[in-house]
Amino acid sequence: MLQVRSVSRSFGEIRAVDDVSFDVKSGRMTGFVGANGSGKTTTMRVILGVLAADSGTVSWKDRPVTQSVRQRFGYMPEERGLYPKMKVAEQVIYLARLHGLDRATAHRQTHELLEQLDVAERADDPVEQLSLGNQQRVQIAAALVHDPEVLILDEPFSGLDPLAIEIVLNVLRDRASRGAPVLFSSHQLEVVERLCDDLVIISNGAVAASGSRDQLRTRFGPPRYELVVGDDAGWVRDIPGVRLVELDGARAVFDLDDGTEAAGVVSGAPGPEQAVLQSAVERGTVRSFSPVVPSLAEIFKELV
Amino acid sequence: MSLTKTTSTAEAEAASTGFWSATRLVAEREINAQVRTKGFWITFAVFIVGIFGSAIVPGLFGGGATTVATVGPEAEQIVAVGDFEIIQAADQAEAEELLRAEEVDAAVVPDQSGTSPVGVRVIGLSDTPDDVMSALSVSPAVDILEPADVSDELQFLMAFLFALVFFMFSVGFGMAIAQSVVTEKQTRIVEILVATVPVRALLTGKIIGFSLLVFAQVAVLGLMTPVALRLGGQDELLTDLGPVLGWFVPYFILGFVLLASMWAVAGSIVSRQEDLGSSTSLVMALVMLPYFGVIFGRENELVMNILSYVPFSAPVAMPVRMFGGDAQTWEPLVSMAILAGTLVVAVLVASRLYSGSLLQTGSRVKLGKAWSRAD
Description:
Chain B: It is a multi-pass membrane protein. Chain B: It comes from Phytoactinopolyspora alkaliphila. The complex is a heterodimer. By secondary structure, chain A is an alpha/beta fold. Chain A folds into two domains: about 1-220, Rossmann fold; about 220-295, Alpha-Beta Plaits (2-Layer Sandwich), CATH 3.30.70. Chain A is about 35% helix and about 30% strand. Chain A has a six-stranded mixed β-sheet, with helices on both faces. In chain A, a hairpin with a 2-residue loop joins strand 9 (about 200-205) and strand 10. The longest helix of chain A is centred in the middle third of the chain and has 16 residues, at about 160-175. Chain A starts with a strand and ends with a helix. In chain A, about 40% of the residues are buried. The mean pLDDT of chain A is about 85. Chain B is mostly helical. Chain B folds into two domains: about 20-55 and about 150-375, no CATH class; about 65-130, no CATH class. Chain B has 16 helices and four strands. Chain B has a four-stranded mixed β-sheet with strand order 2-1-3-4, sandwiched between helices. In chain B, helix 10 (about 235-270) runs antiparallel to helix 14 (about 315-325) and helix 15 crosses helix 16. The interface of A and B includes residues 97 and 100 of A.
């Protein structure tokens, strides 16, 4: 487990990261989301030692992260960088060797990975001749080539077409399933939602929420339900303890009032949503009745 | 399960790159990147052609005897005293014709006006033909109390060549170092590099890589020089030059590394190739110093004495003084010690400035800020 504890970092007067703590668990994909300038990149740079923290610690397997530990991390910085005139394979091999791989292993793993990422046929071309999307794949290869123990990826999906996103997703899932903790940031919330097991939401340099994706959904979504009946559903607004959010003919979306709870959450008593369902059944056809799980985008909006 | 895990950690532990292996990899990459550029080989070829050219060509042209057109037996008899090739002309008009056609270097004709004390006139094309004049003149005997080891022109030529070689290599490859640093900053690959290996390994690797490249070239040129001189029939010069060349090479090595560390810092304080011009101007001035200082200050003993101890100009000035026989035996040792000391300090300072500015992007990084930012 990679642990970030009370990390702070300022740039002049601006406190970019303020007392940030979270865990990245082994074998899990942790999504790191936040608005622009909220401190994601700074936090990742601190983890990688590219920036020094003013205070706080980063530890891996309960030991502080030092230069030699970090060498076994894989990092994809937000601002991509490769030597433009160097050939693709040569470049990935070079980075693999800087990470401590011997020549033969570096060679083998580079070619395997380029194959996996579907850029093997460009192996002997200079990077500058590749399309941006393909450069991005090479960048991912550079982060993964040394079989890193920990993966830190800053916006790994930006600039990729949907097909490439799928390829990269599979490669990352594969690494996570082999036990590496994966921390990745993204502003594409729907991708994060689909991909991550755990979430860290950062806002103005501080952690606004963290935990497993499902936990966060139940914690931050207000209890909300959707009802579709045979004819007009306007009567829902008259049921006590219920706040109508959206009405569209036969379809109604409603929240429970503050202070009330859904059935069985605490007391086991039937909540107002049960009264709505009962009433709907009495009035005629019920086509569907279900809790609405908030999307990550909605949670995000609420927190940030 | 737990067993495999332990093994993989142990393997990773063993494989971790140390400072020197990282440095070696960085140096290797720089060398590979450089030798693949056309410019590298072109510059090298120009140097080799230059050395052979300057050693052989003067012998081809300068070796030919001066030709003189003579009119009449009297003139021919007088000219025959010197070592000249004589072409007989029928009259003065024909002699002048030969001179205009540049088939002869001078003409000697009977004096018609009676103003010449020896009865003949010497005719030149555009200026006085000195070698003919001195052969036909009478000079008093000369004694020289402190003869210089080598002639003045030769000394100037050597000063010029040492300065030129040092200048070309320091500027050419210095600029390449600065560019290599900026490229890493501009493409942002530096972030991956810094996350992977110590910053000092990056700097050291770069300096070592470029220095090895340059030393290899200088060594080849150093070995070629005696060959070229022998081919050009300048064996005498070789005897004088040999020991000085032996001093010039170590001076060159120290001087180059000193400048290389400064070029690297100049590259690290800007973020774009376009800004390199402004940040390298100070280093450029330090490279110009030995070049112009030695060429223009060559006549002035005090200036040369000072230049031969200033670390930036010592690599050129001291070998030039030694070539002229002006330096005491202990002098190069002291000056080289000063140079080596400066080098150590410069590399330490450069390494701190480089670490402090490498990850700063945007506008030019102030040196003071780079110094205090170093973690």
